[in-house]
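Structure in, sequence out. Go:
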């Protein structure tokens, strides 16, 4: 198996509880035999899981499952909710999916031609039927001409990398505090116009192209995260 497939499998096992919190991972040799790959691939997989807080390494160098459920580490990586929750726990409500002409701001941000076609997506993401955040997403039509409503209901990161075989490189994020509008508060089941965290992200592919500009508004107004030295 490839490292990407092994990572996805182990994340699913960890988030579902099949591999319980505080349990130790099998040795490199055991995992390489189980997933039919070399030990270098397993080291890459374990390194990824350690970096993103799924695992912790003890003083003897062994890795065990971290209780990451109370942390907000997903905001610091280009992650999908499916990296932290089981697929059964996640759902989406698509408020709108429109093809628009790029404004001057979108033309500059996405580095596309003036008035080029852009997908405009507004959706609410839910965890166990509880509103998690509102996402306003803009994606160049030239990169994703076949985008559908069904695609937007699932993980767009997975869609981009699997359906188009693009490789995502990195994102540049800006975090700020904003007040929700009454309409946004209603979508998140909040009252009034509360102060919440807003995350702006400009996402880049490995070829240097910008694949999205997004604005995510959380139902929270603070961050609690796990950091490694």
């Amino acid at each position: 198996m490839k490292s990407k497939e092994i990572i996805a499998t182990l994340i699913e096992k960890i988030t579902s509880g099949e591999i319980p919190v505080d349990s130790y991972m099998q040795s490199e040799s055991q995992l390489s035999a189980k997933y039919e790959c070399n030990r270098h691939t397993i080291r890459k997989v374990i390194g990824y899981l350690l970096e993103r807080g799924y695992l912790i390494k003890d003083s003897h160098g062994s890795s065990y499952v971290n209780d990451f459920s109370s942390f907000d580490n997903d905001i610091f990586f280009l992650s999908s909710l499916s990296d932290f929750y089981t697929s059964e726990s996640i759902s989406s409500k698509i408020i709108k999916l429109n093809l628009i002409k790029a404004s001057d701001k979108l033309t500059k941000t996405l580095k596309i031609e003036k008035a080029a076609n852009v997908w405009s997506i507004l959706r609410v993401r839910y965890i166990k039927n509880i509103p998690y955040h509102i996402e306003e997403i803009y994606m160049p039509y030239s990169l994703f001409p076949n985008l559908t409503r069904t695609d937007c209901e699932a993980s767009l990161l997975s869609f981009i990398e699997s359906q188009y075989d693009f490789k995502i490189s990195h994102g540049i994020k800006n975090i700020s505090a904003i007040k929700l509008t009454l309409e946004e508060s209603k979508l998140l089941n909040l009252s009034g116009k509360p102060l919440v965290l807003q995350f702006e992200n400009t996402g880049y592919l490995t070829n240097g192209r910008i694949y999205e500009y997004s604005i995510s508004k959380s139902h929270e107004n603070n961050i609690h995260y796990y950091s490694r030295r």
